[in-house]
Amino acid sequence: xxxxxxxxxxxxxxxxxxxxxxxxxxxxxxxxxxxxxxxxxxxxxxxxxxxxxxxxxxxxxxxxxxxxxxxxxxxxxxxxxxxxxxxxxxxxxxxxxxxxxxxxxxxxxxxxxxxxxxxxxxxxxxxxxxxxxxxxxxxxxxxxxxxxxxxxxxxxxxxxxxxxxxxxxxxxxxxxxxxxxxxxxxxxxxxxxxxxxxxxxxxxxxxxxxxxxxxxxxxxxxxxxxxxxxxxxxxxxxxxxxxxxxxxxxxxxxxxxxxxxxxxxxxxxxxxxxxxxxxxxxxxxxxxxxxxxxxxxxxxxxxxxxxxxxxxxxxxxxxxxxxxxxxxxxxxxxxxxxxxxxxxxxxxxxxxxxxxxxxxxxxxxxxxxxxxxxxxxxxxxxxxxxxxxxxxxxxxxxxxxxxxxxxxxxxxxxxxxxxxxxxxxxxxxxxxxxxxxxxxxxxxxxxxxxxxxxxxxxxxxxxxxxxxxxxxxxxxxxxxxxxxxxxxxxxxxxxxxxxxxxxxxxxxxxxxxxxxxxxxxxxxxxxxxxxxxxxxxxxxxxxxxxxxxxxxxxxxxxxxxxxxxxxxxxxxxxxxxxxxxxxxxxxxxxxxxxxxxxxxxxxxx
Amino acid sequence: xxxxxxxxxxxxxxxxxxxxxxxxxxxxxxxxxxxxxxxxxxxxxxxxxxxxxxxxxxxxxxxxxxxxxxxxxxxxxxxxxxxxxxxxxxxxxxxxxxxxxxxxxxxxxxxxxxxxxxxxxxxxxxxxxxxxxxxxxxxxxxxxxxxxxxxxxxxxxxxxxxxxxxxxxxxxxxxxxxxxxxxxxxxxxxxxxxxxxxxxxxxxxxxxxxxxxxxxxxxxxxxxxxxxxxxxxxxxxxxxxxxxxxxxxxxxxxxxxxxxxxxxxxxxxxxxxxxxxxxxxxxxxxxxxxxxxxxxxxxxxxxxxxxxxxxxxxxxxxxxxxxxxxxxxxxxxxxxxxxxxxxxxx
Lengths: 605, 346
Ligand SMILES: Cc1ncc(C[n+]2csc(CCOP(=O)(O)OP(=O)(O)O)c2C)c(N)n1
Ligand code: SF4
Ligand SMILES: [Mg+2]
Fold this sequence. Notes:
The complex is a heterodimer of chains A (605) and B (346). Chain A has 605 residues and is an alpha/beta fold. Chain A has 4 domains: 5-202, Pyruvate-ferredoxin oxidoreductase, PFOR, domain III (Pyruvate-ferredoxin Oxidoreductase, domain 3), CATH 3.40.920.10; 207-389, Rossmann fold, CATH 3.40.50.970; 403-480, no CATH class; 484-604, 3-Layer(aba) Sandwich (Rossmann fold), CATH 3.40.50.920. Chain A is built from 20 helices and 22 strands. In chain A, strands 8, 9, 10, 11, 12, 13, 14 and 20 form an 8-stranded mixed sheet that branches. In chain A, helix 1 packs across helix 5 and helix 16 (500-513) crosses helix 20 (583-604). The longest helix of chain A is centred in the last third of the chain and has 22 residues, at 583-604. The radius of gyration of chain A is 27 Å and the shape is globular. By secondary structure, chain B is α/β, with parallel strands linked by helices. Chain B has a single domain, classed as Thiamin diphosphate (ThDP)-binding fold, Pyr/PP domains (Rossmann fold), CATH 3.40.50.970. In chain B, the strands form 3 sheets. Chain B has an 8-stranded mixed sheet, sandwiched between helices. The termini of chain B are far apart. Classes of the chains: A alpha/beta (605), B alpha/beta (346). Strand 16 (443-445) of chain A pairs parallel with strand 2 of chain B, so a sheet runs across the interface. The site of magnesium ion has 9 residues of chain B, from helix 4 and strand 5.
């Protein structure tokens, strides 16, 4: 069990535990121990319960673990249920004032009571942030009990307070206070220990997906952003602002090579993005479910009028306001067809921070190349939690601006038509408003139009246009990120996408240990690429795992695949609002496999 | 630019003939006020000398919003969604500051479904000309009341409007608009100079132009009919426009005219008709609108102007060059800064 455990801090929202949790997380990374931190927080500014899990995983699993090994209990309200969440043999560090008897007295765990409030009062002068310092005290207590190297904690802490050097010594003394208290008063009874794993995290860093996406926007050449704040997407635009202020401002003129507008609502946010895309800028908005509901009409307009734009949907648990601070892959089928009529979109499905960054850049290229809105669907887990990631690679390719006619091009052409399919790939040519040529102008409309962008209600013209849009969508199959396949040949496979990936990685290891090898395909975009059908055809049973109630991607696959492949698909769904863990894959999969085996046995006998 | 017809005789400052400013034939009802506005726009745009390739004609949905197809054929047009023209126009301007934005909307498009975006366009002082072709009804959906219909006004089928109207000019002034005018589709003498002044203004220029719907709202009992407007219109002043560097040829009697210099150096001369009206006085403007309403009058003219306020692009510290034109080298973080940045994550 060395270095394989989950530490959970149960605190009250607004009590300032975030810095302490980050110090702990970074200290572990400094020791070479792979971690997967998950912040489970309420939709509230202050007062409701919040949890922070740090999973330590020598194998580097990045998904949540259901088991809590070490609990820091600092919220009386959840004290009872928090105790119940600890696995047998676990450890509970708690405020000494909490009573341990009846339901809270378990005989299969170790209790370490610490008088946090008193310690803080005794050691820190009035006027100092005593309430917050309690959180640093628990970092010290954990360091002592689990043998986490204090130097690593100190290094992480100094880094954490880089911009507030005055706070370093005070916080450091709180760590020491907890450390010494535990050393002097809490004889070690449990068997958990953390040991350095030299090299275990070399070449890795911690970053959240929204930051990765924001950097992708900077490097992908986004110059116009319009947004309306909504958890869990807010930090994407805020981080984009941060980097634009840092890297896009001309030091001499103070001019900024980006325009970022906090719009009045998501209707306006997407309106500005599409207006900017029409006028030639790379533009994006970031939002979550309620926002894309509002954006639906403009999404269809942009699809039909063929205007680029990028929409980041950092998904949260719906329907409606749902659980605004919990995660879900709940917008996949909605985003894929967002708007009325026959609308179909390109949707990218990043699973990692690297992909959050890379897909953000590709989204701008794809939007320009296909002259259409592109949706990037991450989720709260990917967007807001920290993940161990390799440093993001500097882009080696120039922007792909797609088929744009310049004034010189127009000079060479005697005529052109905005919606003509010149190349047979369904993708027409466009001009950018402002192009200095008398033939550059054309009329963009969401109503029926012909190849020359003239108003038309002709049935033939209308159908021809819809067919061309479909041809364009077919072309996109070859251009979107292709699926990733791990295949060794068994009959059984898993198909997943987005953050579900991380649970699948661990689940496959567990299944392998149980003697069941399963192949794996990770879908990374819509439209589906031909490889997906081919992969399914090579397997008898394919489990489609996703984080929503209705099996949304499963549904999209069923709608597209031939019947003989559809019957091979089985759906596994996780929808609690918590990030999926490996057991949510293995348990239903093993159950289904047993049933399948029995059916085969029954058929043979 | 050699395929644009050029002539030494009848051309404007950009060397273009009036024909260049025409569009495809209108498909609106004969006699519709919107058609007259289109004609006044053709004249105003021609005389102003806008270069078609820089003109972005933006609109929403409605009979009014169809009209961008009927002028300056060669310009770029964006006939978007009902009530969402302001956001699209904002995005287009952010992408390319050099574009000359002309927004055309209706009273349904602006005062109902698009009221929020209208307010925020004004609040941001987006540099554009925003025309509401105001007929007090929804023409395209066959004549329902709009939110600019006056209380007590009667529909063709007899229904009486039970609700107070939204005064788009009063609202605009309240929101800090920097150019607000009201006019009438049948009054080209007033509308053309007001349009040109709006073009010359930097910031959001709002023009609420009463534009009768002959098919659904031109009967007795309507307060947006030709007859009603002719009977109740009270112009605040006579209006003359002089382009930048143009010589002011009219001899005005001292004390009879107010001269306003616009941001591009053009002048608008407001000839006193009865009471002295100062369009730089916001409170007077609001009082005038209020009084007119209680007296059942339709005041027209330049209601309010504030020259020199910074527009959205200036407030956003945007470069002069279009953001749309920047490439990788201008927009990406340098390799050195990138390495430093990545190293800072551990
Ligand atoms: C979202 C949406 N709802 C309803 C409509 C139907 N619709 C089309 S035009 C219109 C009203 C237009 O009124 P106005 O803006 O005053 O233009 P007018 O036709 O009077 O010039 C409506 C309700 C629509 N196109 N889109
Ligand atoms: S219905 Fe009314 S607004 Fe529409 S075109 Fe006819 S007259 Fe004009
Ligand atoms: Mg109307």
